[in-house]
Amino acid sequence: MYLSINDIHKKYDGQWIFAINCDESELGETLGGEVVLHSERRDKVIREMEYYMDDTSRSIIFYAGKLPEGVSVVLSALKNELGTVGAAYFLRQFSAGQGDYTREREKLLEGITFDNIVNNVRELDREAADGTPTP
Predict the structure, then answer these.
(1) Scanning 27, 70, 82, 106, which has the fewest C-beta atoms within 10 Å of its C-beta?
(2) Is a pLDDT exceeding 80 seen at residue 108?
(3) Residue 31 structural domain
(4) In total, how many domains does the chain have?
(5) At what angle do helices 42-49 and 71-92 cross, to 10 degrees?
(6) Which of 64, 63, 34, 59 is nearest to 49 (CA)?
């Protein structure tokens, strides 16, 4: 269903929006479109938007709400330089991951000191110089 940009902002305030079949003014401003994806999580919208992409319709991704200063400039620059699909692929690389990296790293490296690592590297270097295989 086609919505004006003002209606989109009202209906989806605080969410990331992906709209297709967008109309624009003579100045290039988006007037409205069909919202096909919306979520508070940018990565969810970016991950799913490629299913709606085609070269014949104008599409847009934006945040319906107040963005932190500078974010809209960066998104606009990405889109201008890479195109909508290229920008989506770029942003997809930086989506929020899952799990707790810090906790996993601490568990993995528990009891290992910098000296342990240095000694292990030196031992590997000695073995390589002697030609003895490392188990």
Answers:
(1) 27
(2) yes
(3) 2-92
(4) 2
(5) 50
(6) 59
Q: Is the pTM of this model over 0.85?
A: no
In whole angstroms, give the CA distance from residue 1 to residue 4. Answer: 10
58, part of any domain? yes
Are 118 and 71 members of one domain? no
Phi, psi of 61, rounded to the nearest 5 degrees: -120, 135
State residue 98's pLDDT score. Answer: 63
Question: Sorting pLDDT into bands at 50, 70 and 90, what band is 56?
Answer: low
Nearest to 37 by CA among 23, 49, 51: 49
- Is 119 exposed, middle or buried (CB count within 10 Å of its CB: 0-12, 13-18, 19+)? exposed
Q: 79 near 71, Cβ under 8 Å?
A: no
The sign of the CA dihedral 91, 5, 41, 45 is negative
* Better-scored residue on pLDDT, 48 or 70: 48
Q: Which amino acid belongs to residue 73? A: V
